Amino acid sequence: MSPSTLALPLFPWILVPLFLTSFIVLFTSPTCANPEAKRLYEDLLSTYNRLIRPVGNNSDRLTVKLGLKLSQLIDVNLKNQIMTTNVWVNQEWSDYKLVWNPEEYGGVQTLHVPSQHIWLPDIVLYNNADGNYEVTIMTKAILHHNGRVKWTPPAIYKSSCEIDVEYFPFDQQTCFMKFGSWTYDGYMVDLQHLDQRADSNVVDPGIDLQEYYISTEWDILTVPAVRNEKFYPCCEEPYPDIYFNITMRRKTLFYTVNLIIPCVGISFLSVLVFYLPSDSNEKVSLCISVLLSLTVFFLLLAEIIPPTSLSVPLLGKYLLFTMILVTFSVMVTIGVLNVNFRSPSTHKMAPWVRYVFIDSLPKYLWVERPSKDEDEDTDTLAIITPTSDTLKFDIDDAPYDIPAIPPSRYDRDRYGDSTKFFPTDTLALPAPPPRVDDSALIDELDDTPSTEQKTYTSINYIAQHMKNVDTFEEIEQDWRYVAMVLDRLFLWIFTLAGVLGTVGIIFRAPALYDTTPPIDVIMSKVAQKRGADYMGPEN
């Protein structure tokens, strides 16, 4: 066996110590390679007292500069009037105890130290809504060799915000975040904005939006910051604070699709009630169904907006207007149904009702009543009296063909050339009696009641009854026609009221005419980068 063959199994055992040595050197080298930073840390903080305000003289004023970088607008709770934001709180001040010469420490110019080891200003959010007034995540602070300290902790704040719901959902809200020192007055700690100029207390824009993630519900319009000095009754010293104002406009697509359009559709369903025939017996049911639907929308609205009595939201006004409209439509529908089912036995039609709703108004409402047949208007059943003319009729005037009578039963020479005969005659006629005088026959019938006379009396009664029934039905049809005209009249009235009410209420919101472009889309680098990714590298 050659020596090279014996050396092959020993090769892995030689590599193991090499890998272990490299691993130890790799992960321990930063600690051992930066002894100057370790020495600097020990020299600065070994005798440092983080409880004492870092000034040379107790009467000196320490200037703390404050800035806010908005990362995300998490939520604006209308019902609880709380704005939830994700921010970075930029704080800068000078600490004379943390000054060093970089040349003495190997050129180290900055040092990252835990913020719990140095003095921190007690900057809190005054209008906090959940109890966490101060920053909860204690990130490291950055120390510069000239004594400047920079601390930028992230925080999620829930701040109280007075919500104005007058034009909801086409509303515009202005919320603020008030920051200030809780214990130090203005003579001890002077709070200023990072970008504040000496001649002004207003900074616009006062919030950094470069790392802002665009909200799906709100457009940010302006973010000014204002420095104020407030004097409290307890103390003579001023207490400075900074208001970070956020003016935002609601994006209305969600509410338009899910609230406005359904409400408008339901409101116009109440108008269609008057197009429904009165005889269908579904008019009142449709009105009640629409009223219940609006009640459900009212309950949804009550879950969104705050329970305030200062103003009624725009959507609430529209729902209230629609409910009043539907309520009136129910009342009017009941009245129209009452007119529709009137009859001569219960109501008498006044002349002015006939003139207005039958003769005059229909032509202006495009309501056309079918015209009656002229023959039907003039042809009435006359009262039949048993005269000679009614006891006989001419064959030529008969409404149907009369069969010819056999010659053996009808002899013209014997009975004359008269074509008159009794309507009760049939083809199987008995032998005709001897011819008598017609006038004598009529006189005899007048004096002696006969079956024919009783029959004609009954026919007269039936004819009069039929005439009364026709008159009764004609008056009922007139009442129904009046109800139809009323339906058409209220159809136009309620349509006009619905259109004017919808336009007059919804289009009163100033946000509908505000063309101010949102600044979050312009200033946010996150939004610009996302837009560039959507456009593609070729664009």
TrEMBL record:
Neurotransmitter-gated ion-channel ligand-binding domain segment(s): 38-252
GO cellular component: postsynaptic membrane
SUPFAM superfamilies with a match to the protein in the record: Neurotransmitter-gated ion-channel transmembrane pore, Nicotinic receptor ligand binding domain-like
Record carries keyword Flavoprotein: no
GO BP, sorted A to Z: synaptic transmission, cholinergic
Entry superkingdom: Eukaryota
Transmembrane segments: 253-277, 284-306, 318-339, 489-507
Keywords assigned by UniProt, alphabetized: Cell membrane, Disulfide bond, Glycoprotein, Ion channel, Ion transport, Ligand-gated ion channel, Membrane, Postsynaptic cell membrane, Receptor, Signal, Synapse, Transmembrane, Transmembrane helix, Transport
Subcellular location field: Postsynaptic cell membrane
Record's function text: After binding acetylcholine, the AChR responds by an extensive change in conformation that affects all subunits and leads to opening of an ion-conducting channel across the plasma membrane.
Protein name: Acetylcholine receptor subunit alpha-like 1
Species lineage: Eukaryota, Metazoa, Ecdysozoa, Arthropoda, Crustacea
